[in-house]
Amino acid sequence: MFSFLDRSVFAGSSALGNTSYINPGPVGAFAVQNPLLLNDSTLFQLEMSGGSLGEGIQLLQGSYGFKIKGHPVIAAAQTIQYGEFTATDVWGNNLGVFYAGDIALSLGTSLVEWRNWRFGMTGKLVNGTYESYQSWAVALDLQAMTRLESGLDVAVLLKNTGRQLSTFAGTREALPLNLLVAFGQKLEYAPFRWALVLDQLNRPNLGLLNLGLRHLNGSLEFLPTQRLHIMAGYSFRRQFEMALSDRRTSGGFTLGASVYFSKFQLHFANELRSVAGRMNTLSLNLNL
After folding, report:
1. 280 lies in which domain range?
2. pTM, entire model
3. Which of 2, 108, 213, 264 is within CB 3.0–4.6 Å of 35 for a Cys-Cys bond?
């Protein structure tokens, strides 16, 4: 139910295989998933992202970081549109067309600090509309993050805890709850930043048959200059879930690049989701 809540459409996050929960780069859109990443260099950026999965499925996202009484806040809107469908009656007569889509509005901020740990929260209002059927839900993300003496960044997130306010057909469904731990670091003497994420820890049986690898996502970011970042990521769970018994596949790999200018940034991501095709995402960030 509302599984789109578990990822960001932003191309920088997509290129890193959805492991950007601790990315300290000068990009405000990373804070959509973790508002503790907001700082003076990432505020007042307007992000606009779009991606396509084919067959008319479109993903869009926008975000903006600002301050309320000196407190950093990020607001975001994310939607997935599933395309156009033909409506028929029980006898197969054409009644026209209808559209289906989901949308989430979110607001995130930091809360308190305690013993080198910082804590944050993101609230979400979610709607799904499929023809004449609608469902509303509220969700809450909780974040905690610290930097160890070794320079290792560590974050713990509980995503999408909440419930439906109204149902599609009288049956209440669970939101995509996700407990995850992220950690990573920039190498001291080389232009690389790595990250690993153990997600879906609230589902301990997810990876028993694969030595727990289905919980693991990783990424590597190459930083040759301040203006160019090249990114790659890998999701073991996507690889296992999209694998075919009769052929090898490369599902789970992501690649991308970011180019930074003084007034704006461009981000591109290419995700190999399955043998059926790829997903390309493009993001524009404006420094306002």
Report:
1. 3-287
2. 0.89
3. 108
Q: Per-residue confidence of the chain (288 residues) as pLDDT tens digits?
A: 788 898 899 999 999 998 999 998 889 999 999 999 999 889 999 999 999 887 778 999 999 999 998 899 999 999 999 988 888 888 888 888 888 999 999 999 999 999 999 999 999 999 999 888 899 999 999 999 999 988 899 999 999 999 999 988 888 889 999 999 999 999 989 999 999 999 999 887 775 555 567 888 999 999 999 999 999 999 887 777 776 666 666 678 899 999 999 899 999 999 886 666 678 999 999 998
Question: For the range 269-276, what are the long-range contacts, defined as Cβ-Cβ under 8 Å and sequence gap of 24 or more?
Answer: 269/11, 269/12, 269/14, 269/15, 269/51, 269/231, 270/15, 271/14, 273/53, 273/238, 273/242, 274/242, 274/249, 275/242, 275/244, 275/247, 275/249, 275/251, 276/54
> Using CB atoms within 10 A of its CB, is residue 70 exposed (0-12), middle (13-18) or buried (19+)?
exposed
Residue 179's domain is classified under what CATH number?
2.40.160.40
